[in-house]
Every structure is written in C-alpha cells, then in structure tokens.
Amino acid sequence: MMKNTMNKTFLLPVFKVSLLSLGLIILSGCLGKPPMTEEVAKTGNMSSSMGSQIKSDIDQTSNSDSTILQANTPLELSPRHDFELSLINKMLKRFHYKKFNLDDRFSEKILQQYLKQLDPSKVYFTQADINGFNQYKDKFDNYIDRGNTDVAVGIFKVYQLRVKERSEYAAQYIAQKFDLTKDENYTIDRKEVAWASDVNALDALWGKRIKNDYINQILADKTHAETVKSLKKRYLNMAKRTAQIKPNELFQTIANAYATAIEPHTSYLSPRSSEQFDIQMSLSLSGIGAVLRTDDEHTKIISVVPGGPADLSGKITAGDRIIGVGQGSKDTIKDIVGWRLTDVVNIIRGKKGSTVVLSVLPHETGLSGKPEAVTIVRDKIKLEHQAASKRIINIGTDKIGVIILPSFYIDFKARSRGDKEYAGTTRDVKKLLLELKKEGIDNLIIDLRGNGGGSLSEVVSLTDLFIDRGPVVQIKDSSGRTDILKDNDSGFIYDGPMAVMIDKGSASASEIFAGAMQDYKRAIIIGETTFGKGTVQTVLPLNSYTRKSFDKPLGEIKITTAQFFRINGDSTQHKGVVPDIAWNLPKIEGDFGERAYKNALPWRHIDEAQHSDYNNAMTEAVVKQAEQKSISRRNKTPKYVTTFNRLKLLVNAGNEKVISLNLAKRKAKRATFNQQLLKLENELQVANGEPVYKTMKELRDAQEKKNDDIFTKKKDIDVFLNEAAHILHDLLTKGKLFSASK
Predict the structure, then answer these.
(1) Quick check: 256 and 117 in contact, CB under 8 A?
(2) Which residue among the candidates 66, 407, 508, 571 is catalytic per the annotation?
(3) What is the pLDDT of residues 505-530, one digit of tens each?
(4) Which of 47, 69, 203, 252 could pair with 154 as two cysteines, CB 3.0-4.6 Å apart?
C-alpha cells in the first residue's frame, strides 16, 4: 500500500514551554517561537545605567602597547544593538535546553570565545593585549545583563588597530630579500599555541608567516616580482576588509561570543544572515542566477545557472568580472571595485521582475578590456544543485536506483501561503522514487554524504516513504518531557532493498533518518561514522518578543531547545551513527564533528520507543558476510585502491603541523608530493577513460574548473557509491534478505 504524503499535514507536538507549538523544527535549527510573555516583552525598558561606568573603565585600560578604544575608527554600535543583547540574554536564559549561570566564571568563557572569534590563529594580539582584556573577564556577565556592548566594541577596535599594524608591517616586510637557506620551521596549526609575548615576538612570528606565504607562491611557479606584488596587495587588503566591517556584523560577533560559549549550535543571526538562512532552506532566491566570489579587488563570476536570467542574457559567462552595479538603468551604475562580496551580492539581488544593470569586464579581454553594460531582469532562481536528484547504476542485470540528497530543505514561506509546488525534500524524493520504480529498479541507495541536516518535519515525512508506520525520532526538552514523532500513516512508497550512505559530514537530520533506518533494520548503513549532532534548534525572531520599535529590524536567535534520540533510545551526540559496513578511511588527526567541541552537550540514553523491525530485516551474520566480500573486492579493485591511496596522501599532508622554511627542502618535499599526486590522479583519469594530465598546473586548472562549475559539472559515479551498489547487488542475489516491491 502506498501512502499519500503530499496532502498530509504534519503537526508537531506541543512542548511544555510551547517552543514548537507554532513552527517547524529544523536541524540544525528549527523555526518556531514560544508565546509572547510579559516578562520578555517588557525587556525593552531595561536600564543600561552602567554604560558610563564601563566607558570609564575602558578609557582607563592600558598596557605597554595600547589603550582600548584608541583606534581611530568610526565604528559604533547603536542603542538598538544594546537592546538586542539584553533581549537575547533574556531568551537564552529562559528557553535554552542547557541550564547555565551567567556568572563570573561563565563571563571568562565569553571573553575567551570572543577573542577566539577575532583572532583564532593568535597572530594579531600579544599577551600584553590579552592581559589588558583580562581585567574584564569577570565583568562580561554584568555588561550582558545591562545590555552594554562598550567593552566588546573597545576590544574590537584594538583588533582593528592590530590588523592595521600587521597589514602595514607585512606589506613592508615582503619587499625584503629572504634567506631561504636557513633551517627554521613555522607552526601552521596555532590553535593551541600561546600568545606572542610582545611586539618583538609577534614580528618574529610574522616574519616566518610571510616567508611561508612567499615560499608557497614560489612553489606555485610565481616569479619573485609577481609574488611580492600579489602578497603586498593581500596584506593591505587585510586592514581594508577589517575596516569595512559593519555594525550589524560586529554585533553578530559579540552576540555569538555569548551564544556559542553556552554550546556550539546556539547563535545570533543578523537580519542579513536570517535572509541567507531562508534562502538555504527554500533553495531559491530572486536574482540573476550566478555564483560570485572575490578575486583580488574584483567580483568574479564563477558559475552561471543554466536557464537563469544571466544565462538567458547571452552576455554573461564564467570568468567575467563585475565592476559596477546599477538599479533600473545605466545611469545608476555604481563602481563596486574593492567592495566586499556580501555587499555586492546584496545590491545584485532584488525583487522578481526588477531590473539590475551590471558593468562587466569580459573574461576574454581581461582587466584592460572595455566594460560592457548588461541589463538583466531578476527572476526566481531555483538552486537545483542542492535539491534531490537521481541516477541509475547497472550491476549485472540489476538496476540500482540512487537518490542523492544534499540537504533536508523546505520552502516554509511557499508552503504557508498554499503554493502547491513548494520545494520540499519529501515531495521531490517521492517524485524521484516513482520515476525510478517506473524504470524498473531492483534496489535503492539514499546518498546522505555531506548532508548537514535541515528540516525535521521533512526527515520525519521522508521516513514515512519507507516504513509502514511507527516512531521516527524522540525529542526530550529542557523540562524532561519526551515527545515521539511518528509516522501514523499505513503503507509506503518504496518497500524494496535499500542502503543509506553516510559520512563524517552527515549530520543532524541525516543522522535521524539513517538512525531510524538502522533501528528498524530497514536498510543497511554504509560509509563513515556521522558528525554526531543530536540537538534541536529553534529560530526565534527578536521582533516578536518586544513592543519596542526601531528604524531597522532586529535579528533572530537560534537556540538549542531540545535533544533528539533514536528509536533505540541512544542519542547521536558525540557518537553519531556508526555504519553497518565501514570504509575505514584515513583521517585527519584530532577529533572531528561534535566531539571537537569542548562545550558540546554530552551523550545520553533514554528508554527505547516501541517499534517493529522491518519484515525482511537482514541478520548480523549476513551483514558481516557482505562486509567481508566488500573488503575483498575493494582490495582487488584498482580504482578503489588508487582513490584510497590518494586520500591517504592528502590526509598525511593535512596532518602536518610544522613545516620547513628552507626553500630547497620544501621544493624537494613538494616535488615528491606532486609526483605522487599526479601519478595517482592520472591512474584515476585512465580508469575513467579520460586523458591524463601532463603537468601539475594542468591538474590544478582542471580541478579549479570542476570545483567552480557547480551547476553543470559531470556527476561521476565515485568508487564508494559504486561499491555500495555492489554490496546491495550481493545481498539481493542471495534472495533471502529482501522482497523487492515494484
């Protein structure tokens, strides 16, 4: 029996604090809001009477190198930002799943998090700066309670000053002649190192940093003159871009120092970040249909969406540079050379049907060419490369259907206004499943590799397509209440043999789906252990929690409100979903995923949810047999062995923490690495029936082109997907594991 999921209305359970009563959960993140309360609504009247005292504290702060707020920069936050901070504080204390005390001890964590966000590699501040900042380490709780950002702004201004100093120092230093025969090393992984003791120590550090940058350029076949010119521009741009930071962006950094000090998935979204979030979930936006990136001072077009407005104009191609943007006519074009990419994107986007005019330097003529004015009518762009897609792999006489799912997406706004064609994972996957069944597939793979999550309602409804009925996921809120989200519809869309592919980038909603399939014994899980994110976030618009009005909208706060658990009672926190058949690939040293966060919520276990296993469930013995056969086949498959060795080569290089600044040694090491990589890449080229690369430059150019062309690039059947198809073929030919439904 097939269930009709298209007309099904999914209702979320009401939590004790009603956090989910009006919205849709997303993972990582959820849309929904608690009811308006007098306590929260009145926070607009909170006093900031401590502001003058804090300002006085700042003015008196000094050390051997600087005084906070001495940097000559006009950047200031407004009373609106101070109000937002106090409102965020109220909401975090009230609604966060993790109960915490905003006290002196927690205050120090906030300061540490803020400094980490500003200077993660510890290359701008000295220990003297840190000593000056540390006099406030037990006061951030007081500042936050009073909604005062003065100290945080003061620290940021010191940061701007330090970046400017380093920018100017590096731009001058790069012009000197380097001694590249000296045996010295540079530590490239600086997360755990101490701060430079003083300016002299920082100069020495930057001397090595700049020398390393220089060597990297020389190893990339750049001349001395080209290297000096490009690096000088890079260093001067550091200060320029830091100086361009807007008040909203600074406030987002300050607010997130507080939010992420609680746990890693709580964050503040500025109005612009909220817009980006909506676009990501709906997979669409109104614009010209092009992917942009910064290329020195210019905005470069990397890819053009097939059939989009830019493509249909016939005048825009990948490689072109945009040097000006106007609205409606040529007369309004503004020069945007040197602008930050976010600002360029913001003025290119607009309402559907409106006109944008671009001043473009065609890639054929280069920077010395004559700019052309291109008029484009904005339209709705569907970001198809993030939507579900399908393909078929033939193994013998078997047809293995594959559905590739990059995210669990849904266009909330389109659904709420009754649009029957709204973008949604379940709608799209159901359509693809029906098409694959018509094509006569014998079994199915759901590829969740790299799928970082998305809408919880979508992962629940997607599970509905593959099971008859029963629980999908358990959610425990801060009050201790557990709700079970279930598939209450009988029937299914697909009941045949099935596998789910996962990797370390599969997180949140992906882990719910893979975990449910594993707990029901509905599918065999293949790949790597997942990310390990087992928390639920709710996005709350701050404007909805205050009666106070401002000239500009407030942002949103994404709060961790609950923890989800598998049907078997296990959380996926830290541990993730462990595959039934694992690849055991080389790994970068150190923890990855949720385990890498020191303040992540711990793993927990609750009672199992009652459910029935899949009728044709496979036994552990059968899975073990399939795994052993897969290992044997992988070891005898040249393409798999080459792919594994290539990954091992890259991982070993990535595990390097310290590198030599002796050019001869670096050249020898780079030559060996390039020789090995080129050999392995060409072995894969031959295996794929493609021409070999003659040089590393040819290889790098080809890889860059492939990475950039995200809309039209060929989707190869990689060795891991191919092996998963062979595993399913092995299981199907036994004739005892599944009964395929066609």
Answers:
(1) yes
(2) 508
(3) 899 999 999 999 999 999 999 999 99
(4) 69
Q: Are the C-beta atoms of 458 and 425 separated by less than 8 Å?
A: yes
Domains parsed from the chain with CATH numbers: 50-87+99-261 (no CATH), 285-382 (2.30.42.10)
Please say if 508 is a catalytic residue.
yes
Catalytic residue among 533, 570, 580, 630, which? 533
283-310: average pLDDT: 73
Please tell me which residue, 40 or 89, carries the higher pLDDT value.
89
**Distance from C-alpha of 14 to C-alpha of 8, rounded to nearest angstrom:** 19
Q: CA separation (Å) from 634 to 4, 525, 630?
A: 40, 17, 6
Cβ(470)–Cβ(3) under 8 Å? no
Amino acid at 146: R
The confidence band for 361, taking pLDDT boundaries of 50, 70 and 90, is confident
Dihedrals phi, psi of 663, to nearest 5 degrees:
-60, -40
Distance CA 368, CA 58 (A): 49
Confidence of residue 605 (pLDDT cuts 50, 70, 90): very high
Residue 70 one-letter amino acid? Q
* Tally of CA atoms within 13 A in the half-sphere of 515 that contains its CB: 34
533 annotated active-site: yes
- Does 351 qualify as catalytic in the annotation? no
- 474 closest CA partner among 490, 486, 462, 459: 486
The residue assigned the tokens 């009925």 is 469
- The pLDDT score that the predictor gives to residue 139 is 96
Structure tokens at 35: 């009811």
pLDDT exceeds cutoff 70 at 484: yes
Instruction: Answer yes or no: is pLDDT of 192 > 90.
Output: no
**Alpha carbons 308 and 602: distance in angstroms, whole number:** 46
Q: Quick one: average pLDDT of 663-668?
A: 95
Task: Extract the tokens encoding 190.
Answer: 């600086």
Q: What are phi and psi of 375, to 5 degrees?
A: -95, 130
Residue 314 near residue 360 (C-beta atoms within 8 A)? no
pLDDT(205) > 90:
yes
The predicted pLDDT at position 733 comes to 66
Tell me which residue of 719, 715, 554, 528 sits closest to 639, measured CA to CA. 719
HSE toward the beta carbon, residue 256, CA cutoff 13 A: 20
Three-class SS state of 318: coil
**Which residue is it, tokens 């594991």?**
737
- Nearest to 290, CA basis, from 710, 713, 702: 710
pTM above the 0.85 mark?
A: no
Does an H or E element contain 483, and which? Answer: strand 482-487
d(CA 81, CA 149): 8
Q: Using 50, 70 and 90 to split pLDDT, how confident is the model at 709?
A: low
Q: In 3-state terms, what secondary structure has residue 528?
A: coil
Pick the catalytic residue: 447, 464, 519, 580? 519
Q: Mean of the pLDDT values across residues 406-421?
A: 76
By three-state DSSP, how is residue 359 classified? strand
Confidence of residue 598 (pLDDT cuts 50, 70, 90): confident
Q: What 3-state DSSP class applies to 111?
A: helix
